[in-house]
Amino acid sequence: MPMERGIYAQGWFARGHNYHPSLPPRRLKMAEDFADYRATITTWPSLGGGSISLPYLEDEAHAPVPARLRQYGFLKDSEFADELRQRGVKAFGVIFSTQGWEFPVELSDDESEILAMNELRGVGKRGWLGLREFTQNRYPKLWAPFEKYFPDGLVNSRGEAVTDLFEECCSRDIHGVPHHAGWLEVPGREHECHFMDLNNRVWREYLKAIVRIQIDAGVDGIQFDEPDSPLGALGYGGSFSYDNVAGFRDYLAGLAPGQVPESVGDPVAFHYGRWLLGRGVETVRLKADGEEGVMARHYVRFLQGCQAANFAELSSYVREYAASVGRTVLVSSNLFDGAPWHDPLASMLDVLVPEQRHTLYEQPGWMRFIAGFGGGKPVCVSTNPYGGVMPELLAKLNRGAAIDRYRVMMYEAAALGVTMSVPYGAWMGSKIEDAVWAPHDETLEIQNFLADNERLFSPETHNALGVVYSTDSNFLETTYQMLNSSAEDVYPAVGETSPRAIPFLRAVNSLGLARHPLDVVMFHDGVHRDDDATAGALARYSRIVLPGCGSLTSRQVAAIVGYLDGGGSVTLFGELGGQGEFGGQSGVDVTPIREHARTTVADSTSADALVPEGSQVVATGLVRGAVSIQCSGGAAGALHVVNYDYDEGVERTVVADLVSVDIDVPFEVRGATVHHPGRASEVVPVRTIAGRVRVEISQLGPYAIVEFD
Asked: Helices 54-62 and 77-86 meet at what angle, rounded to 10?
């Protein structure tokens, strides 16, 4: 499968706030730049205004563009999609799945013209414009009527006609107060964004209307942003809107009697919010003791299943509606940092467009994780301004500094099996009044290098180390971290280990920084996504690391034992257990793994403890870096080497002179060519020493690829 070179194409203005959901108007220059950057796909690119109203979205797609703006190449969003397609770039529309908006406006006296919206000027007649006004046909001179899109209206799960989408479809706290999307509302602005609830069938029907408009406008794909409602509302204490309370009641009724605490009583009459309030509790507490903790764990499992079912409905609708009008449309989604509840969604996508939880300068472990999470599908990563380095990097890029930081960020992703989307007016959050604009000339250099060497990139590798990520083992802890988010990084930062990081992330971080080429092997839970573990799939690895695998299925245990019996080696770190081991109940027996003669137990996540035989690649002369061995077309394979060594004083990568690389590969090597960004490739001699291939890189800047013949 070819790599996708993405553009993080929000196009927000420099020195301006990033206002959701509608993006600034698109320009012809954007399409020209994207073609120059050799892009194949756009993320967050256009047609986002459906969270304001459907007429607003149609205006984005089709409204006339004034001559004054035509002079500068401004386009309708539908025209923008056409221009991208003509240049070989797949144009996506974006659906902000959990956003519902109301904006302050200033109108002409007859309410036929918007004089100001969001950024008010103190003119005209004050009002509000958004989902509520659309539902109620408040401004007939501005917007087409609600009935144009829903001739029979919309009816909620209680059989009531919907008269206010803004209030009907939002997530609510235990007292019924709407949750707000606090990461989007800009301080000092009057606008309001409700956190919408995908468990409400009305909201899903509304999103399907957005799908129809975007496909009719000619998009090549649809990207669902924020697909984890209402599970994401756990970060605000939980969602207690009607459909969540009623749905959870039905979920409990389907459980075996012994699994439900006696205090629940008759599940048919149960109300989770009132039950918690009766105990003096106002939020979901996943690690609470006794019955409260049991119910919290049932609740998040209920939400996990809902998210998978809701996205299956929406993604299927995209493909069905596209087929009904004679088109094929791709589906992508922002799966954020690859949380376990997103695993079923990955199987439903054509392209993954994850947004890092924390963007750091050196994160080879996470890059290999998200590549494994993609399961061989294209993965186009986007930066995130919160909790990481982007505010610092933005300030430096704006003054022309830290260019090598940007280079390494782009090359690191490609070297490790994914791509980093070029930030083109990219998201800097609701508080920072600026956007990330990548340096143009350097971006041309980077993108041309990646495109010219496309044959050397592949999701398949020759890496001999496999690290297992068990989605079921990590679900509850990762969910707990979302409930208890803080400024502390849940990822291990460079040179240290966060106490909040799960064992898996600590392990891949340590191994990645120690220059171990590794693959992440996904173990699906067998409930929300089919468990496909086999000993045969593991057999290609010389060692498998099991970090924090406390809830393995019987099939996964059998696969690992079969791998061990076949001569493989396993390292255990942290908890090891089988599914079903909770509340004193016995579960899947993992003893055959623990007691196997070829199993090692590590007492730390140091690379030496996890892989006692050492690394498949030894790069002498490289101070800090990461490596991966990708399969490639036309060659035996390619070693990708990233150089993290950086001089803060001069803000440049420290060039490594004479890097000697010894590598074990499962093929004969007769020659090698080293490809460097920005300078000519060089043919280098190859020697075989004690069974290892040795090549030497005379000078290593931020990145190099060693192509083996």
From this structure: 50
> Which amino acid belongs to residue 15?
R
The Cα–Cα gap between 154 and 146 comes to: 10
Summarize pLDDT for 144-174 with one digit per residue, the tens.
999 999 999 999 999 999 999 999 999 999 9
Helix (H) or strand (E) holding 389: none
Largest CA distance in the chain: 85
Identify the three-state secondary structure at position 549.
strand
SS3 500: coil
Q: Which two tokens stand for residue 583?
A: 């509340």
- Tokens for 489, please give them: 């990084």
- Domain span(s) for CATH 2.60.40.1180 in the chain: 617-708
Contact between 95 and 44 (Cβ < 8 Å): no
Residue 623 Cα distances to 92, 234, 486, 493, 537, angstroms: 41, 42, 32, 18, 34
Cα distances (angstroms) measured from residue 595 to each of 121, 510, 547, 571, 592: 73, 26, 16, 12, 5
User: Residue 117: which residues within 8 A CB-CB, separation 6 or more?
Assistant: 103, 104, 105, 106, 129
Quote the tokens at residue 473. Answer: 């083992």
Six token digits for residue 468: 């297992």
Please write the tens of the pLDDT for every residue from 81-124.
Answer: 999 999 999 999 999 999 999 999 999 999 999 999 999 999 99
Angstrom distance (rounded) from CA 460 to CA 695: 22
Give helix 403-415 / helix 364-374 axis angle, nearest 10°: 40
DSSP 259: G
Q: In what order do the strands lie in the sheet with 656-663?
A: 617-620, 656-663, 692-700, 687-689
Other beta carbons within 10 angstroms of residue 60's beta carbon come to 26
- Is the separation of the CB atoms in 42 and 458 below 8 Å? no
> What number of other Cβ atoms are within 10 A of residue 662's Cβ?
19
Both tokens of 336, joined, read 């954020």
Classified as helix, coil or strand, 240 is coil
Three-class DSSP category at 446: helix
**Strand 380-381 to 99-107 pairing:** unpaired
- Count CA atoms closer than 13 A to 60's CA, side-chain side: 30
* C-alpha radius of gyration, the chain, whole number: 26
Q: What is the pLDDT of residues 202-230, one digit of tens each?
A: 999 999 999 999 999 999 999 999 999 99
Beta-bridge mates of residue 469: 522
Backbone torsion region of residue 437, taken as left when φ is above 0, otherwise alpha when ψ lies between -120 and 50, otherwise beta: beta
Q: What stretches of 484-579 show up as alpha helix (H) in DSSP?
A: 503-513, 535-538, 554-565
Is the pLDDT reported for residue 583 higher than 90? no
Q: Tokens for 226, please give them.
A: 């924020």
Q: Which of 655, 664, 449, 469 is nearest to 547 (CA)?
A: 469
**What does the pLDDT look like over 627-664, one tens digit per residue?**
999 998 766 899 999 999 999 999 999 999 999 999 99
Q: What's the CATH number of domain 465-610, 3.40.50, 3.10.450, 3.30.70, 2.60.120?
A: 3.40.50
Place of tokens 């060497």: 453
Q: Which residues contact 516 (CB under 8 A, 6 or more apart)?
A: 465, 607, 611, 615, 616, 617
Q: Where in the chain is the domain with CATH 3.20.20?
A: 6-230+308-456
CATH of domain 6-230+308-456: 3.20.20
CATH number for domain 617-708, candidates 1.20.120.910, 3.40.50.10540, 2.60.40.1180, 3.30.360.10:
2.60.40.1180
List every span in the chain annotated with CATH 3.40.50. 465-610
